[in-house]
Amino acid sequence: MATQKKLTVVLAAGGTGGHIFPAEALAEELTLRGHKAILITDARREQYTFAQRNNIDVHVVYTKSPKGGIVGKIKAIAGIFIGLYQAKKLLKKIKPDVVVGFGGYPSLPTVLAALILNIKTVIHEQNSVMGRVNRHLATMADKIATSFADVRFISKKDQKKIILTGNPVRPHIKAVRELPYPTLDKDSHLHILVTGGSQGASVFSEIIPEALVSLPGEVKNRIRIDQQCRKEDIDKVRKIYESAGINADLATFFNDMSARLASAHLLICRAGASTIAEITASGRAAILVPYMHATDDHQTHNARAISDKGAAFLMPQKIIRADLIAEYIKDFLARPEALVKTAVNAFELGIIDADKRLADVVEEVA
């Protein structure tokens, strides 16, 4: 959608990857269209460098997660008022045409401030379950952009505001889609990529090494694994793989995720919204192990949205076992066509122009 006016757009996102990565993709698309994107986030944003790379102004407002019982909730409420005051002051100075909220508690003060100041607002919901902050803001927002066709907890009266945009994926991840799925036959190595969200997942550091070590020698020799581990787990996991002679590359964070994703046959990972978007955009098979303590169990609903279509394998954390993972791996090597079919199904679900769709919504609202 073309627009003559050059817009100033504020992106309100928390400092975790699930919120920052879609904001990054939208910021880059808006910049390409000649608009100015400004990020308002929380103190965690230092670990993400896209704003510096793209010369995007960044502002931090105070927020506090409502954890820790009554005292924690009181502090969180006080934090909302502090953040609201800071956000109102910023927005009056910036004078944005639109504020886009990406959910999470850090987005709340900025979107609330926009509503109070009668600034146009869009909220983007990454998950298949509407987050609690977005639930509160949905009725007042001008548009609701969603990543899934079916999203729980959007009221009937707000259905008319919904536009399915998908979840924007970073360009270097999206580029993997143009590359062929790596060859997997009786002589190939099975390349497994294990990620666990922003902080890694300790359950993977326990179960996956045990599973791979238990494999027969001829199977172990055909495995290559790249695994994201927590700092406290990485040395232990490395020793296990080295002792078993398994080809492994471990890190607490992968800066070259697109290259690893391009060569991967199989991911073992959580089921956060950004992970689902990247799996489907790149067309890769995955065993999804939803984080069991995710709010409203939204990761399980995310996983089911694609596993029910044959585009992933769902393995709830309460049933994950080393012997089960080992059986999957042996079966994939014996029947690679099953893995390839899953990757094709994932590919077909990918929404690769989500950044453009979301930018269109911003321009329409403005």
Structural write-up:
The chain has 366 residues and is an alpha/beta fold. It has 15 helices and 13 strands. The strands form two sheets. A seven-stranded parallel beta sheet has the order 3-2-1-4-5-6-7, with helices on both faces. Strands 10-9-8-11-12-13 form a six-stranded parallel beta sheet, with helices on both faces. Strand 9 (223-228), helix 9 and strand 10 (247-251) form a beta-alpha-beta unit. Helix 1 (17-32) crosses helix 15 (354-365), helix 3 (69-94) crosses helix 4 and helix 13 crosses helix 14. It starts with 7 loop residues before the first strand and ends with a helix. The model has no long low-confidence stretch (mean pLDDT 91).
Outline the secondary-structure elements.
Elements: E1 8-12, H1 17-32, E2 36-41, H2 50-53, E3 57-60, H3 69-94, E4 98-101, H4 108-116, E5 120-125, H5 132-138, E6 143-146, E7 162-164, H6 171-174, E8 190-194, H7 202-213, H8 217-220, E9 223-228, H9 234-244, E10 247-251, H10 257-263, E11 266-269, H11 273-282, E12 285-288, H12 298-307, E13 313-314, H13 322-334, H14 336-349, H15 354-365
Parallel strand pairs: 1-2, 1-4, 2-3, 4-5, 5-6, 6-7, 8-9, 8-11, 9-10, 11-12, 12-13
Helix pairs in contact: 1-15, 3-4, 7-9, 7-13, 11-14, 13-14
